[in-house]
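@channel sequence for tomorrow's demo:
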Amino acid sequence: MNTNRIEITRLMNAQEVAGTLSIAKSTAYLLIQRKEIPSVRVGRAVRVRPEDLEEYIKQNLVGYFE
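structure tokens (generated this afternoon):
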């Protein structure tokens, strides 16, 4: 029996990542390219799991939230 199951969630494109973070789409692509935000390649498309974006946000909290 395979216990390495992956839970399928809706993947986000760079535009959605940019909108969530209130940054430019080019900056979102840069973060993904630098592997600061993990991504999945689907053909030529790059997608981000919402839980990976949430983890990126948590790891980069500063100031008030610390």
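heads up for whoever presents: The CA atoms of residues 4 and 18 lie 31 Å apart.
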